[in-house]
Write a structure and sequence with these properties.
97 residues; alpha+beta; 3-stranded antiparallel sheet; 15% helix; elongated
Length: 97
């Protein structure tokens, strides 16, 4: 697990792909569209899973909580940095000078 404050936040992503496992509906949302779920720029990506629900399933009376989330980062460097934070310290590739 990454240190607090070091994991990727909503401010690091360009958009979020959300797919419902129950109904198959998928959408792309920009970070500013996630405010209705109580998400701001400082919200960690790991906290999204408990906040986002499928509105189509909710309208049919289903829980709508079986969603998968994938972030599209602003640049490739940010994505590599986020992946490196998930690895143990000795497994992180070092940059050569």
């Amino acid at each position: 697990m990454a240190l607090p404050g070091r994991e990727p936040t909503i401010a690091h992503v360009a958009s979020i792909a959300v797919e419902c496992a129950d109904c198959g509906r998928n959408r792309w949302w920009r970070p500013d569209q996630l405010r209705r779920f109580g998400v701001n720029g400082q919200t960690p990506l790991s906290a999204l899973a408990g906040r986002i629900v499928c509105s189509a399933c909710r309208a049919e009376g289903l829980p709508g909580a079986a969603v998968s989330i994938q972030a599209a980062f602003l640049d490739d460097r940010a994505r590599h940095h986020a992946e490196a934070l998930k690895l143990p310290g000795d497994a992180v590739p070092r940059r050569r000078a």
